[in-house]
């Protein structure tokens, strides 16, 4: 059934009930809004109607806001033309001849909240929530929200709600003036709304028109002062490239100082501008893409049904294994935790308890819930209890021989339908299962640390993995509140492979004489949570040496084998592990640049590059002169575009099902800034040709010293640039065969 509205009229009372209908959350599709305008006009003109109640169809929502997929079409210019929603809400809902009441059950968010605010009164169930989270999508409220919310709850609270995107629960909404009546349960909602609607129709209760209210706005000078405080918060907490929060405040201020008509006009102008910003396109892309990762062609559309994972066995109770166990017990899954001896087992059990107790201390969990979670956890130093397991997750050391031994044993002690998975971040899944006859039910479950907090679960399938196993693992990831991303089996899988150039490019800059702390500062300003050298300290220098070596071995044509990490390791600068790396760390892990402590190591690594390029010393000197004059933008391109290049290869090879899966994986694992959309989205907004040309210029610069391959644009990127298609659409547009998925 197409999104629409429908209504009924109680002939005895004269109260009309108008339903917003677009299951499951009654999103405001353009067709629904057109139907809403048409039916509101009919009801306002119907002489038999005394009052109108607006509510959501179904049990879960009044309306969760505008239909986001349709919003994407609006951004691209291909969507249906919207009616003038602001004019319609003002004329037919707020100021029509018949009073209106919003009967709210569940969520009234974004455009849904704006529709509710346009009514003359709002009745909500106690569990309902109301809010304007549009800024999360890089836009501002566009249906009058910047004008009505300040008049209902006051400028300060309205700014807080919009800038933080945090909704209000019904009781607080009533206390603030956003809701008029709160009822205890769903059955009381419509009777209470009907009573209030008739009271307004009979004149015993006054109608409230939000745009006409001035009591919570105050004089213009006070409004300017409050908005200025809001601007200070925006400047403090918002990345430089995000303009829409400040522009939202512009609309609020115009309405507060020049009146609602001017405010509505300003809101429309700002909305029309920000909707075309790259920030909005990126944030909407992330919002939608995260909801698509669990849809995998040939798997989730195969007609199979996922089996529940009621019991999971975990091998290894270290930081990773205990984090995985925590995520499981938190979500109602029984866990059998295995360690090699009693001492290690007790340590693992204590880590799970500490993870849970941290939530108790912060007030996020009751002591009763803690006890329930711990009751789901059983420990063993044998394989006792593994016969109950629906899935095993191996989280032992990154040792091929050890893992092969474990999986051979698992094949003997587990049920024949038990999924056997490994948390490896580097080892080929086929190699892990090479000594079993169970390769069809072996899969990678790559968690990111801390596993009970980080949202991404990278699921690695092989050519032999059963569809049922993939489907079950996706469902398991969702059950423990992770975002599952299915990837193919290759060196580094998806995330680690895509980001190997991130650190290598930074090492190359350091070897060429660029200040390492400037590099980190620039990349953090770009939006990453930390720069590549600070990240190397966090991960561990020894890990970086090991993983980097694998990429040099497997991708020798496009890697830079710096000696920097090796010399840091040999100099006992291991990162946070021993509180000294590129940075020095205090007891609270606060980092300060190591400066002189690493000068000798940096110089020696640079000298090693000089020695390797001895035959092209003059060309290397020229490169150093150019690099040392790099702008911040040059540094960002130098480090991030090789990441885009490798991302293009991953898409071309079919390592991910969809390009957007790689973007989401990058955002959720590496902290790639959501407002840039991910490596592929960022590149597509810039244009494949622009990315290709910039990489080609770096390649030309470094070819004389034998390092051009690190930057050479890959075939897929060049093909997309020539054809004028996006990297996201290149596989289908160019007919590239999908190699693995």
Q: Topology, pairings included?
A:
Blueprint: E1 4-9, E2 15-21, H1 30-45, E3 51-56, E4 61-63, H2 68-76, H3 85-94, E5 100-104, E6 107-109, H4 111-118, E7 121-125, E8 129-131, H5 145-153, H6 155-164, E9 168-169, H7 170-176, E10 181-183, H8 189-201, H9 220-237, H10 244-258, H11 260-274, H12 278-290, E11 311-315, H13 319-330, E12 334-338, H14 342-361, H15 367-375, E13 377-380, E14 391-394, H16 400-413, E15 419-422, H17 429-432, E16 442-447, E17 456-460, H18 467-479, E18 483-487, H19 495-498, H20 500-511, H21 516-526, H22 532-539, H23 541-554, H24 564-570, E19 583-585, E20 591-593, H25 599-612, H26 617-628, H27 632-652, H28 659-670, H29 679-686, H30 688-702, H31 715-723, H32 730-734
Parallel strand pairs: 2-3, 3-5, 4-6, 5-7, 6-8, 7-10, 11-12, 11-14, 12-13, 14-15, 15-16, 17-18
Antiparallel strand pairs: 1-2, 8-9, 16-17, 19-20
Protein model, in words:
By secondary structure, the chain is α/β, with parallel strands linked by helices. Helices cover 50% and strands 12% of the residues. The protein contains 32 helices and 20 strands. The strands form 4 sheets. An 8-stranded mixed sheet has the order 13-12-11-14-15-16-17-18, with helices on both faces. The chain has a 6-stranded mixed sheet with strand order 1-2-3-5-7-10, with helices on both faces. A 4-stranded mixed sheet has the order 4-6-8-9. Helix 14 runs antiparallel to helix 15 and helix 20 (500-511) packs antiparallel against helix 27.
Strand content: 5-15%
Q: What is the number of helical segments per DSSP (H or I, 4+ residues)?
A: 32
Using DSSP, what is the number of strands?
Answer: 20
Largest sheet: 8 strands, mixed
Biggest sheet strand order reads 13-12-11-14-15-16-17-18
Helix/strand-derived category reads alpha/beta
Radius of gyration: 29 Å
Report the helical percentage.
40-55%
Our measurement of the CA-to-CA distance between the termini, rounded to an integer number of angstroms, reads: 33 Å
Shape: globular
Point out poorly predicted stretches: 736-741
Averaged pLDDT, please?
95
């Amino acid at each position: 059934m197409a999104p629409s509205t429908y209504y009924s009229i109680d002939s005895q009372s004269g109260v009309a009930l108008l339903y917003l209908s677009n299951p499951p959350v009654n999103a405001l599709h353009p067709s629904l809004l057109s139907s809403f305008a048409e039916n509101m006009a009919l009801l306002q003109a119907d002489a038999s109607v005394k009052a109108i109640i607006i509510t959501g169809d179904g049990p879960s929502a009044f309306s969760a806001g505008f239909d986001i997929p349709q919003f994407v079409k609006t951004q691209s210019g291909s969507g249906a033309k919207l009616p003038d929603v602001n004019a319609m809400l003002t004329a037919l809902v707020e100021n029509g001849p018949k009073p209106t009441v919003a009967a709210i059950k569940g969520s009234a968010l974004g455009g849904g909240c704006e529709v509710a605010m346009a009514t003359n009164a709002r009745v909500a169930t106690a569990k309902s929530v109301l809010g304007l989270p549009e800024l999360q999508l890089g836009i501002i409220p566009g249906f009058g929200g910047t004008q009505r919310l300040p008049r209902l709850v006051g400028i300060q609270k309205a700014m807080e709600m919009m800038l933080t995107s945090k909704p209000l629960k019904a009781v607080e909404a009533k206390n603030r003036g956003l809701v008029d009546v709160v009822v205890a349960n769903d059955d009381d909602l419509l009777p209470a709304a009907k009573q209030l609607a008739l009271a307004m129709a009979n004149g015993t209760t006054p109608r409230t028109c939000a745009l006409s209210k001035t009591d919570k706005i105050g004089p213009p000078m006070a409004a300017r002062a409050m908005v200025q405080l809001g601007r200070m918060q925006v400047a403090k907490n918002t990345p430089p490239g995000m303009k829409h929060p400040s522009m939202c405040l512009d609309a609020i201020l115009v309405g507060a100082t020049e009146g609602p008509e001017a405010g509505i006009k300003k809101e429309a102008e700002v909305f029309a501008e920000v909707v075309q910003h790259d920030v909005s396109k990126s944030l909407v892309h992330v919002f939608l893409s995260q909801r698509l990762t669990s849809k995998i062609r040939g798997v989730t559309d195969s007609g199979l049904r996922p089996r529940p994972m009621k019991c999971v066995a975990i091998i290894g109770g270290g930081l990773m294994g205990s984090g995985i166990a925590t995520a499981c017990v938190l979500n109602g899954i029984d866990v059998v935790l295995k360690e090699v001896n009693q001492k290690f087992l007790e340590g693992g059990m204590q880590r799970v308890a500490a993870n849970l107790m941290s939530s108790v201390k912060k007030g996020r969990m009751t002591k009763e819930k803690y006890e329930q979670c711990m009751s789901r956890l059983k420990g063993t130093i044998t394989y006792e209890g593994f016969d109950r397991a629906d899935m095993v997750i191996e989280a032992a050391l990154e040792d091929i021989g050890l893992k092969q031994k474990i999986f051979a044993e698992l094949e003997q002690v587990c049920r024949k339908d038990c999924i056997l998975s490994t948390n490896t971040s580097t080892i080929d899944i086929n190699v892990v299962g090479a000594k079993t006859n169970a390769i069809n039910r072996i899969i990678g479950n790559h968690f990111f640390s801390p596993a009970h907090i980080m949202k991404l679960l990278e699921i690695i399938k092989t050519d032999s993995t059963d569809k049922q196993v993939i489907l079950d693992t996706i469902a398991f990831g969702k059950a423990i509140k992770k975002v599952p991303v299915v990837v193919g089996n290759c060196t580094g899988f998806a995330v680690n492979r895509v980001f190997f150039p991130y650190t290598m490019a930074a090492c190359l800059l350091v070897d060429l004489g660029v200040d390492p702390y400037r590099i980190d500062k620039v990349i953090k300003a770009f939006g990453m949570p930390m720069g590549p050298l600070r990240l190397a300290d966090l991960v561990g220098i020894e890990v970086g040496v090991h993983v980097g070596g694998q990429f040099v071995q497997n991708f020798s044509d496009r890697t830079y084998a710096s000696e920097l990490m090796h010399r840091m390791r040999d100099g006992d600068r291991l990162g946070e592990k021993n509180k000294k790396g590129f940075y020095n760390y205090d007891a609270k892990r606060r980092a300060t640049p190591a400066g002189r402590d690493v000068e000798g190591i940096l110089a020696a690594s640079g000298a090693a590059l000089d020695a390797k390029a001895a035959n092209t010393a003059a060309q290397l000197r020229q490169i150093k002169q150019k690099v040392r004059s790099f702008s911040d933008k040059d540094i960002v391109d130098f480090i991030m575009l090789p990441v885009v290049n490798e991302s293009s290869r991953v898409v071309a090879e079919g390592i991910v099902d969809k390009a957007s899966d790689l973007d989401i994986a990058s955002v959720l694992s590496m902290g790639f800034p959501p407002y840039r959309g991910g490596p592929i989205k960022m590149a597509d907004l810039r244009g494949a040709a622009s990315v290709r040309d910039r990489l080609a210029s770096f390649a030309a610069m470094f070819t004389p010293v034998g390092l051009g391959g690190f930057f050479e644009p890959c075939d897929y990127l060049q093909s997309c640039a020539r054809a004028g298609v996006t990297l996201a659409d290149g596989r289908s547009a160019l007919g590239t065969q999908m190699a693995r998925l």
